[in-house]
Design a protein that fits this description.
The complex is a heterodimer of chains A (about 170) and B (about 600). Chain A has about 170 residues and is an alpha+beta fold. Chain A is elongated, with a radius of gyration of 33 Å. Chain A is built from 3 helices and 5 strands, in the order βαααββββ. Chain B is of the alpha+beta class. Chain B is built from 13 helices and 31 strands. In chain B, strands 1, 2, 3, 6, 10 and 11 form a 6-stranded mixed sheet that branches. In chain B, helix 3 packs across helix 4, helix 5 crosses helix 13 and helix 7 crosses helix 10. The longest helix of chain B is centred in the first third of the chain and has 20 residues. At the A-B interface, strand 1, helix 2 and helix 3 of A face strand 5, helix 9, strand 20, strand 23 and strand 24 of B. Strand 1 of chain A pairs antiparallel with strand 23 of chain B.
Chain lengths: ~170, ~600
């Protein structure tokens, strides 16, 4: 018999006789107390290059980049390397798109003839080949370059050891 | 500052959208969605538009100290959001998911710490109400951090959405969770209505050209975990178009997650045939791969197959990865035909026979055919709406939910529905286009806040069910015979917010001063029952559903039987309240639809 079935219905048609005694309800069990926390080791981030470590950790987490780089791929068929590359490509691409979206420096197609003005921004252009005079120059675009349009990294954490790029995972059976 | 604020409290994702009430700007496509800071990895807090509705109960030493801190809370051990979801996939015994489905579970105690279901004893479990409160609390904290200087969320009018299929008890629990989360001023809104509000907002005044009197609008909402149907009628009231929600469907635990899982299971079988068994983690990553492959195939009709790589869990990526492909044929067979089969409108969802001993868990839909559930909904509502002719005939369809980002699935639903309509000689239903499938519910909820402030058009509806209270008949005790429980209608179908109904005087006795139980029933089809109507045998009646059992000890002298009158009220917030008023006396008792007190 279910617990409820032992209880009498609260509403009844009057004159149907007195309600029989219902059993007392058991008290609710107290929730278990949380176990005391042991002291974890104090993290020591490499302050100066913290964000470099952080980005590397991101690329590993999302795109398994370190696993890919650290694996000896000499013995594998190209198809296997290719399949793994899809994982890296998809994950790392997501990281770049989300945190450091990039766009070509020059919008023209590679191979097109482009003009580089006198007094150009030497950060954005690199001249190669027959570099003479003070410009302006006309030349073939060999690589359109990349420039980050935004830097949207989250705050670099201070509560974790950033040198650990991926923790060892232990599954408890 | 006063805002209209909408919270989509989803089974798998939550979101908050808002607009300033005194500004015409910021509506429509510009309506803001709150960026919600959440842990994405230990130590990393990022703001995202969606908050995954997952709660991870971390062990004390599981993560580096302080790495679970949030901008508003340093000593956090309960993780909500992205990290909860991603890490929880590897530690299922500490992960609370689908709390919303547990909130409307028919038999469990919603206030008991039962989640994660079947977690080991050392995990401090939470109740479905508490888990829901955690998600709302997280959104409140995120709001207060971002906009608290202008207006605290607790002081604002907030609209929270619930499935249309939520019964009064589940709605009550949602309001209770909101209170626990520090949001006392919450109004509930049904999700399909929210989706329609979002569409109305997107259309501006143009909606009057797209809908005409006599239109019956079907909202098909297939989210991550649930499917929800509603019918909304368009009528002409004194020259003005008005909208009225006519009917809502049952709670169906079937959604996009089932679909991705179905694809993954089929591919996992192929691996198994090759002698490669996948572990749970690989299956999860195969499921994600299937989702991406599915999206690629649905996006580009020219694609024959999409590659999927399942990385191994170890550090060997090239050596440990398994590769496979999702064929278009498989996708259509498993997903398009499996979940949206071409069926006749007379076909009913299969009900698997329950074994004598069933494990308690979420009552997942036994039939994966969304179109079959739709057929059942339209057929059931036809008679009740007085439409006759076998099934209710929509004239327009509004889709909602991420599943319908796949255009072929929308097309399939329309094809099947229009097949039914054409067989019945009715004109084809058209699709109402133009809503944002991910954020429509949150946006629509915020828009509703603006409507409540006296603008725009309001969808009328009232309760989507009639409610009954179980009354014991006076009968002599006969061993082995249980007298039938009568169902007394206390709140009729379509009872509007802010109204109350008195049950005509009858001789009722209320047992006070000792633990007793209440039985409540509801019906989504009995439109004509009036307050005070009595059904002789609640259990034998095929169209009544019983709500979770409720027990209470009402204050009073032990075991006394107090003569009372019954009164039902639907509050402005959309909650149903039942009151017992002592006849010739001062006594008043509120009956909670969902209470278990000691």
């Amino acid at each position: 018999m279910s617990f409820f079935a032992r209880l009498k219905l609260a509403l009844s048609i009057l004159f149907g006789g007195p309600a029989p005694q219902a059993p007392a309800l058991p008290a609710a069990a107290a929730p278990p107390a949380p176990s005391p926390s042991p002291e974890p080791p104090r993290p020591t981030p490499e302050a100066q290059h913290a964000s470099a470590l952080f980005v590397l950790g991101l690329l590993q987490r999302e795109g398994r980049l370190l696993d890919f780089l650290q694996e000896d791929i000499a013995g594998f068929a190209d198809a296997d390397v290719g399949a793994a590359a899809r994982v890296v490509h998809e994950g790392c691409r997501k990281v770049v798109a989300r945190y450091l979206p990039v766009t070509p420096v020059v919008k023209d197609a590679e191979g097109a003839t482009v003009q580089v003005p006198k007094g150009f921004d030497a950060n954005r252009f690199r001249l190669t080949g027959n570099v003479t005079g003070e410009g302006p120059w006309s030349g073939a675009l060999k690589h359109h370059g990349w420039v980050a349009t935004k830097v949207e990294l989250p705050e670099v954490p201070t509560s974790v050891d950033l040198k650990v790029l991926a923790p060892a995972e232990v599954e408890i059976p | 500052m006063k805002y209209a604020i909408g919270i989509d409290l989803g089974t798998t994702h939550s979101a908050l959208s808002y607009l300033a009430l005194d500004s015409e700007k910021g509506r429509g496509a510009h309506q803001a969605v709150l960026p919600v800071p959440q842990l994405t990895a230990p130590g990393t807090v990022e703001a995202r538009q969606l908050l995954p509705s997952f709660l991870y109960l971390a062990a004390a030493s599981e993560f580096p100290r302080g790495s679970l801190a949030l901008p508003w809370r340093d000593d956090n051990q309960q993780v909500v959001g992205e990290l909860a979801r991603s890490h929880g996939a590897k530690v299922p015994t500490r992960l609370v998911s689908s709390a919303k489905s547990w909130l409307c579970h028919p038999t469990v105690d919603h206030r008991a710490a039962i989640l994660p279901w079947q977690a080991p004893a050392d995990v401090t479990k939470v109740s479905p109400v508490e888990a829901t409160a955690r998600y709302l609390e997280h959104l409140r904290a995120a709001w207060d951090k971002e906009l608290g200087a202008k207006a605290k969320l607790s002081a604002q009018e907030v609209v929270v959405t619930v499935p249309a299929s939520f019964d009064a008890a589940a709605r009550d629990l949602t309001l209770e969770a909101a209170k626990q989360a520090g949001l006392p001023r919450v109004t509930l809104l049904e999700e399909p209505q929210a989706a329609l509000y979002a569409w109305l907002e997107a259309m501006g005044e143009g909606w009057r050209k797209q809908l005409k009197p006599g239109d019956v609008l079907l909202v098909v909402d297939v989210g991550g975990g649930t499917s929800d149907f509603s019918l909304i009628g368009v009528t002409d009231t004194g020259g003005e178009l008005s909208l009225e929600r006519l009917a809502v469907g049952d709670h169906i635990l079937l959604g996009g997650d089932n679909m991705d899982l179905a694809l993954a299971f089929s591919l996992a079988e192929q691996f198994k045939a090759q002698g490669k068994a996948l572990d749970a983690w690989q299956l999860a990553s195969l499921t994600q791969g299937c989702r991406a492959a599915k999206e690629a195939l649905y996006q580009d009709a020219g694609l024959k197959k999409a590659p999927i790589t399942v990385p191994g869990r170890g550090s060997s990526l090239v050596g440990g990865s398994l590769k496979t492909e999702l064929d278009r044929e498989d996708l259509e067979r498993i997903l398009t035909d499996g979940f949206f089969p071409r069926v006749a409108v007379s076909e009913l969802p299969a009900q698997a026979r329950r074994s004598g001993l069933a494990q308690v868990g979420l009552p997942y839909a036994q039939d994966a055919g969304v179109t079959r559930h739709l057929a059942a909904f339209l057929s059931r509502q036809a008679a009740s709406l007085g439409l006759g002719g076998g099934f209710a005939r929509p004239t327009a369809v509004l889709f909602n939910g991420g599943v319908f980002k796949a255009a072929p699935l929308k097309a399939r639903v329309l094809e099947v529905l229009n097949g039914w309509l054409s067989t019945a000689g009715a004109p084809a239903a058209r699709e109402l286009e133009g809503a944002d499938l991910d954020l429509a519910v949150a946006r629509g909820a915020a828009y509703y806040g603006w409507v409540k402030a006296g603008h725009g058009i309001r969808i009328r509806g009232g309760t989507a069910r009639a409610y009954y209270v179980g009354v014991e008949a006076a009968a002599m005790a006969v061993p082995g015979y249980t007298p039938p429980v009568k169902a007394l209608c206390v709140a009729p179908f379509g009872m509007e917010e802010g109204t109350q109904a008195d049950v005509p005087p009858q001789e009722f006795g209320l047992v006070v001063g000792e633990p007793t139980r209440f039985r409540f029933f509801s019906s989504s089809t009995r439109r004509d029952d009036k307050v005070g109507d009595c059904l002789e045998d609640a259990e034998a009646s095929g169209d009544l559903e019983e709500l979770p059992p409720t027990e209470a000890t009402l204050p009073g002298k032990g075991g006394a039987l107090v003569p009372v009158n019954l009164q039902a009220a639907v509050t402005e917030l959309g909650a149903l309240e039942l009151r017992c008023l002592e006849r010739n006396g001062e006594g008043r008792w509120k009956l909670e639809l969902n209470v278990r007190t000691e």
